[in-house]
Structure formats: structure tokens, C-alpha cells
Amino acid sequence: MDRNLALELVRVTEGAAMAAARLMGRDDKVAADRAAVESMRRSLSFVDMDGVVRIGEGEKDRAPMLPIGERVGNGNPPRVDVAVDPIDGTRLVARGLPGGIATVAVAEEGSLLQTHCAYMEKLVVGPRARGTIDLREPIARNLTRIAEAEGRHVADLTVVVLDRPRHDALLAEIRAAGARVKLITDGDVAGGVMAALPDRSGIDVLAGIGGAPEAVLTACAVKCIGGDMQCRFWPRDPDERRMVEEEGFDPDRVLDLDALCSGRDIFFAATGITDGEMLTGVRYAGHEVRTSSVVMRSYSGTIRWTESVHDLRRLRQRPAVALPPP
Prior knowledge:
Blueprint: H1 6-21, H2 29-44, E1 50-56, E2 71-72, E3 79-88, H3 90-95, E4 101-108, E5 119-125, H4 139-150, E6 158-162, H5 168-177, E7 180-184, H6 188-196, H7 198-201, E8 205-211, H8 212-225, E9 228-233, H9 238-246, H10 257-260, E10 267-272, E11 283-285, E12 288-297, E13 302-311, H11 312-315
Parallel strand pairs: 1-3, 6-7, 6-8
Antiparallel strand pairs: 1-2, 3-4, 4-10, 5-8, 5-9, 10-12, 11-12, 12-13
């Protein structure tokens, strides 16, 4: 790919964020998700690419979605795989809580892992700890190696974990090892990206079980950043385990970063919907809208943090952007 698609993708996430942010705090997850999905679908149709959605959010919770297999882009080269999450943290947006983002990633055709399994166990770290993690070993041993690579003590590390009953044992192990814990209610794409950017976020590790679509999206960002990540399927029942096997995967195998995303030219973009530690949420002021985004490309290792000002009067005249009325 001879151009930076991420600069086009950020327009997609900006539009989705602006569409969803209008519904912030209205306690309607479906409406917020639908607004983001419709905006993202329309904006993607104007991007110069021939893409297929390999990872689409919405299957596990029957939400509005861009389904796996949907073709996106205007049909021109390059041929690419696409991973989308129009809202990472739908409940956060619906309740007006911090941390909701809109995100999309693109990589070479055939390079993104594709599965219908809903959940994966994950471990994410930043560049300095790359090569130190092993999901097959206890979290305490991983934390010791991560701390050594960082030149710090385990007690200095902050581990972000989704606040779920399934993580009670994991949390007990992390606390017993002496590390600090940051619990999040939703949004583990943002959590994983922040763990890969410890100098900016203050978070050093993401651990625990979260969505499989979010795992692949996170892997795209982690690869751009130069961090490290391992995952393992987490089937919820024998039927789901059998489905993973029928997809050609070993459910017990630990997947490294290349297994999740084998591409070498990967693009990732995310825009804040509600205020968070990584990105500021959408700000409305009459006809002016402000957004905060991050844009990455693995080929160059470039990470751009952008603050944009949009004129709604002009945007409403553009077919590539779908915005709800005020």
C-alpha cells in the first residue's frame, strides 16, 4: 500500500464519534450503536479501498453492526481486511461515562484473524516489555518479567482489568504480586492501547478476558506501537469450543501478535466519544464540533494525536458523513 490510509480512516472514526456523541447519556445503547454504525458504513464507502470486514462488533450482543463479510470501501485498490468497532464501550456512551471511543483498523488482505468466538483471554504490554510475556504462565511471573524489562518494581506497575466476576481470581493474583490495579467497566480496546502506551497513559499491562473482536483491533494498534500481546480463545460452552475447532483453530493455543494480525502495513484510527484518559470526547458548540483522535501506521511506526475542529454546516452537505439532527 503506497499511501497512508489511516489519514482517511480517521475521518471515518470522527464521523462515527460525532454521530454517537449526540446520544451520550440517553441510556439507549442500541440507538447510539446504530448512529455510529450508520455513519461508519457511509464514510467507509468513500474510502479508496476494496475492503472486507473480517472483525465486526455486534455479534455477541446482537447490537447493530457491520457484519463479518460485508464489503466496504469504494472498490478501488488496495484489497484489504477491515476491523471495526463503531463504539468500543457502548454502555459508557449510553450512560455518559468516560472512555467510549470509535475505532477502525485496516491491514493487508488475509492478514487479520477471523473468528466468531465471542471472547478471548488477553495480555498486553508496551514496547519495553516486548518478548517478556507468556499467557501460559501465572500473572505474577509475567509481572516480574515486565517490571525487570521496565527497570522498575512490580509495585510500580498498573494493570488494567475489566470489572467482571470472572476476574476475581486474576485480581487476587495481581494484588498478591504487589501490582496496582485499575478496574474498567467496559472498553478494553482503549485499555489495551493505553497499556501499549505506558508513558502516555500510566497503564503498563492489560490482563483478563474480553471481546475477541476487540482483541484483533487492539492487536492492530499494538503492532503499530511496537508493543506485545498474547491471546487465547475463551469459549463459553462446548458448542462454542466446537465452533472454534471447526474454524480451524486450537482453542487452547496461545496466539501471538502475528497470529492475530500478520500484516506488515497496518492502519489504526480511534476518536474519543466520551472523555477518557486516552482521548477527549466530542465537544459541541453550535455549528462547531471538536474531536480528539489517534492515528497509527505500523510501516513507519508513526503515531499522530490530532485535535480537529469541524463545521457542522459544511459537514451536513457532504454525503460521506452521516450526522443525526441536534
